[in-house]
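Re: beginner question about structure tokens

> Can someone show what the tokenized structure looks like for a real chain? I only ever see the sequence side.

Sure, here's an example I had lying around. Input first:
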Amino acid sequence: MQKNTSLRRRIGLLALTGILAAAVWLVGGVVLWLMLGQQTKLEIDAQHIYDVSSAKVFEATRTLRGLERLAREGDALACIADPAERKQRRQLLQSLVHDAALQGDAETRALVTRSFATLDQALTVAGTSSGASGCTQATALWAPIKHDLLNRSEAVGAEVADLATAEADQILQTTSDARIMLLTVAGALALASLTWFGVLHYAIARPVVRLSKSLLQARTGQAIADGSEFIRELQLLHDAAVALGGAHQELQTARSKLEHLAHTDALTGLANRRMFELHSGQAFVHARRYQEAVSVVVFDIDHFKHINDHYGHDGGDVVLRDLGHYLQNAVRDADRPIARMGGEEFALFLSHAPTQVAQQTAERLRKGIEALEVTMPSGELIQFTASLGVAQGSDRDADLTALLRRADQALYQAKRNGRNRVETAD
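And the corresponding structure tokens:
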């Protein structure tokens, strides 16, 4: 009889221990399952933003370069006096018609088609008229199309930047929702566990433990030690919150990098056209309001097509990258941003700078570029030059675009006068 009673007590204590252990494992398993599920979702979302944003940024970069090249070459073709050179450069430009990046959407395709039609009209006008008159008429005919091309280029860049920002915000929101959900689930599970343990303790465990403790103390004088499983589960929840906090910081860093990418030229490290127009446009409006002198310097690499043809596009990229490093060191912080406007064309906005100061800055840059030595992928050391156009803001400039247009005209004048020189707009 006494043996049967002892056996029943042992079975009851083992069952109680099993129930408590099962409850702890259940809580831990649910929390770990939720944490792993959220971690997997975060990894999938992060991979998605990388795949989608990277592909769209690459495609948009090609589209931006194509549109900006078409806008720039169209301007240049209108004022080329030599019919043979004009025809040759027009044929080279024809490759853009078959560029997959410019055939991506109906709006861009229609704009490219309309641009080439207008370009051919402008070249016909330039060919039938002589001298500056032909150039002026052709440029006037091309100007609206150039404006549309640059606007479309800016819109494509803005769309990519907005997409990257929206994707980053979505991931951050997912992280925040996951953290809140885990904390809510953890709180609910903790409350349920406390309730469950309370019921077990007051209804079953406490009487049994008191009896067992009394018996054990009576026999051996040793106390019953409490378990620590519940404390370990709380530690797991804390570790999960720490992991989610780290993921949140990583996503914040990724978002900052994406925003930096949207405003920076990846090859040269300089500002891109969008960033230049944003900051310089604000500075231009401020200068107009307070009657301050501002100037812009626009320049590009002489015979850059020859460099690309002779050394390949990898060699051309080396030239652009080394020039970008030089410009970052040569231009003081007060005159930033200095930007790559597209292709081999660059621009610098100078605050508090009348024409004389801008000319001196441009001449300093010209000499510095002329002295640069660039090592090609083949190991060959080459040098190159640049032509620069300077324009000071005036009352006739309605906006930054008008000021840039006058600087571009001075740049083309420098090209016509022999290159590797600085010309100033009237």
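Each token stands for a local structural state, so reading them left to right follows the chain. The chain has nine helices and seven strands.
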